[in-house]
Design goal:
Keywords: Membrane, Transmembrane, Transmembrane helix. This protein is mainly α. The chain is built from 16 helices and no strands. The longest helix is centred in the last third of the chain and has 33 residues.
Length: about 350
């Protein structure tokens, strides 16, 4: 923790960081004014991403957003997701088994389909195509691809753009289906009671202790899963019914969107275009497959097709959780499926990637 704070304080150029977050905040409010879905997240991402790609250096430096600061905010989303837990969730969880089984078939199918499509297009080698189309585990798959000898810059862009495209396309799809912007009033919300000092102390403890435990135990997406588990336990036990305030969730979205947007800084525009085309082709397979499957199994699973689709869409756990929050869906259902997706994607990449190198 001491090293974490030291890096956070000393590494960035703070005037540039402040300007970057100001740009992200402005992008969020502009997106809200345009009634875009998840405006604080998408607006900040697009504004900072565009500035990064354009190579803007207003203070002589490219846009900066410390990833350590993002890690400090992400537990807020975990606590908010956990805030949807109620005692009846214990009886609902067994009903998720059919869709979890379907997910275990869906992940290898779309991974293989995306891999075959990218190799057929022919702009990347087989290893880069394989690790770049894994529908989850961005950090883990990039690391495995690097060890295997893949084209790491292209691999990182494919995985990053997979996340970005899903974050953009899925809310837009829901906006079309719902007839109004998803999360237009601040981005996301979850029902809860007013927060008192005792509630605030419990939720802060759930965020901090949960994140530490999740990371220490190396849980999938531990920095958000830990807070989900502790916050969920506190709500199921009846210790609190409060959730983080809307303004804090909106601020968290700006931090997340800004930290994603700065990743484009310094990337050659031609390589970004190539990666975007390949990632878009892969998105047709993954998102299109999620649509088809959700419509096919809705009658079996017992959840609405829109909820199943969100649970199967290969976006980030935090970002998909935000959409579930904003639409008052079964948040824990969606979260559970994304956790399984991440674990399964990494396991498949590790197992079959080794065979691909032989």
């Amino acid at each position: 923790m001491r090293q974490f704070l030291r890096t956070l304080i000393t590494a960035p150029h703070w005037p540039t960081v402040c300007l970057t977050y100001a740009l992200g905040t402005a992008g969020g409010f502009a997106a809200a004014a345009l009634h875009l879905p998840l405006p604080m997240l998408l607006g900040s991402l697009l504004a900072v991403g565009a500035a990064s790609v354009a190579g803007l250096k207003p203070l002589g430096r490219v846009p900066q957003a410390p990833q350590q600061l993002r890690m400090l905010f992400i537990p807020v989303i975990g606590v908010a997701i956990g805030g949807a837990a109620r005692p009846e969730i214990l009886t609902e969880a067994p009903e998720w088994i059919p869709s979890l089984i379907a997910l275990c078939l869906f992940i290898p199918a779309v991974h293989y389909g995306g891999y075959r499509l990218l190799t057929a297009i022919g702009r990347v080698d087989r290893l880069t195509a394989f690790y770049g189309t894994a529908p989850g585990g961005l950090v883990e798959t990039v690391q495995m691809g690097e060890e295997a000898g893949a084209d790491v810059p292209m691999l990182a862009m494919l995985q990053f753009l997979r996340l970005i495209l899903t974050i953009i396309l899925v809310p837009l799809a829901f906006t079309l289906m719902e007839g109004h912007a998803v999360g237009s009033a601040g981005g996301a919300a979850v029902a809860g009671h007013a927060m008192g000092l005792r509630d605030a102390a419990l939720l802060i403890a759930a965020a901090v202790v949960g994140a530490v435990i999740g990371v220490r135990l190396k849980l999938p997406a531990g920095h958000v899963l830990g807070p989900i588990l502790l916050s969920g336990a506190a709500h199921v036990a009846g210790l609190t019914q409060a959730v983080p305030p809307g303004w804090l969730i909106a601020a968290t979205q700006v931090v997340i969107g800004t930290s994603l947007g700065v990743r484009f800084a310094g990337m050659p525009k031609r390589r970004i275009l190539d990666a975007a085309l390949l990632a878009l082709a892969n998105a047709v397979v993954t998102i299109g497959g999620a649509v088809v499957l959700s419509l096919s199994i809705a009658g079996i699973v017992g959840e609405p097709a829109r909820t199943i689709f969100l649970a199967f869409a290969p976006g980030g756990l935090v970002e998909m959780g935000l959409i579930a929050l904003s639409l008052n869906m079964s948040i824990l259902y969606v979260t559970a499926h994304h956790l399984v997706r991440i674990v399964l994607s990494v396991t498949i990449a590790r197992t079959f990637g080794a065979r691909l190198r032989e």
